[in-house]
């Protein structure tokens, strides 16, 4: 394991310490557990994204023919997804 530093709010640290004591674990254990869960979810999303992208490329290809490359279709979809995400994020601020 490697040591790292993170910055937490006072409330975050207080709650982590409370949970750690209640579960008889260290704050570090809880943080590692949270990071593991976060990474698992992100990797699952990534895996789902690729499967969805493959299905989408197949559907698009069946409609437009073979003259558009898979990379071109995927690039267009990624760009559209990025644009939608940015628009959604702008609405949150």
UniProtKB/TrEMBL annotation:
The keyword DNA-binding applies. GO terms for molecular function: DNA binding. One of its GO terms (biological process) is regulation of DNA-templated transcription. Residues 75-93 have a biased composition (Basic and acidic residues). Residues 3-41 form the Ribbon-helix-helix protein CopG domain. It holds the Pfam family RHH_1. Keywords: DNA-binding. Residues 71-93 are annotated as: Disordered. This is CopG domain protein DNA-binding domain protein.
